[in-house]
Amino acid sequence: MNTILLLLLSNVFMTFAWYGHLKYGHDWPLWQVILVSWGIALFEYCLAVPANRLGYGAFSGFQLKILQEVITLTIFIAFAVLFLKEKMAWNYLVAFGFLGGAAFFAFAFEAAPAGT
Predict the structure, then answer these.
(1) Looking at residue 10, what is its pLDDT?
(2) H/E element, 106
(3) What is the pLDDT of residue 112?
(4) How far apart are the first and last CA of the chain?
(5) Residue 111 forms beta bridges with which residues?
(6) Are 19 and 70 in contact (CB under 8 A)?
(7) pLDDT of residue 105
(8) How far are the Cα atoms of 35, 57, 58, 112, 113 from residue 116, in angstroms, in the given order?
(9) Dihedral sign for Cα atoms in the order 81, 85, 86, 89
(10) Is CB count within 10 Å lower at the N or C end of the chain?
(11) Which of helix, strand or coil describes residue 56?
(12) Nearest to 98 by CA among 64, 69, 76
C-alpha cells in the first residue's frame, strides 16, 4: 500500500512538473519553465524512488512499471479535466480502457520464473 500511495503522490508532482506550465507560464522564458519543472520533479523523484524500492519484491519490475503508468494516466485525466479544463472524449476513455486491460493481464496471471 505504501508503494501505491507514494506512486500516486509522485505522479501528482510529475504531472504538474511536465504539464502545469501549459496553463500558466506562457510568458516565461523556456529556461525558467525548465528550472521550475526540475524543481517540482525533484519531489517526484524523492517519492518515486522509494516507491519502487519498497514495491520491488511484492511486484515484479514489469508490474511496477505498468502500475505506475496506470496511476500516471489516472492522475493525468483528473489534471486535464480539472486543471487544464479539457473535455474528456470517448476515444480517450476507450484508450484508457485498453490500458486498463493491459494492467489486468499483467496482474491476473502468474509470470513464468526467470530462466524458463
Answers:
(1) 96
(2) helix 90-108
(3) 65
(4) 30
(5) none
(6) no
(7) 86
(8) 46, 19, 21, 7, 6
(9) positive
(10) C
(11) strand
(12) 69
pLDDT in tens, the chain (116 residues): 699 999 999 999 999 999 988 888 788 899 999 999 999 999 999 999 999 999 999 999 988 998 898 899 999 999 999 999 999 999 999 988 898 888 888 888 876 666 65
Task: Using the structure block, give the residue that is written with the C-alpha cell 490500458.
Answer: 99
Q: With contact defined as beta carbons under 8 Å apart, do 84 and 33 qualify?
A: no
> Of 44, 105, 25, 95, which Cα lies nearest the Cα of 52?
44
C-beta of residue 96 within 8 angstroms of C-beta of residue 73: yes
Residue type, 73: L
Which cell is 85 given? 479544463
Structure-block grid coordinates of residue 18? 511536465
pLDDT of residue 77: 93
Measured at the CA of 27, the angle between CA 24 and CA 33, to 5 degrees, comes to: 65
CB-based burial of residue 103 (10 Å sphere; 0-12 exposed, 13-18 middle, 19+ buried)? Answer: middle
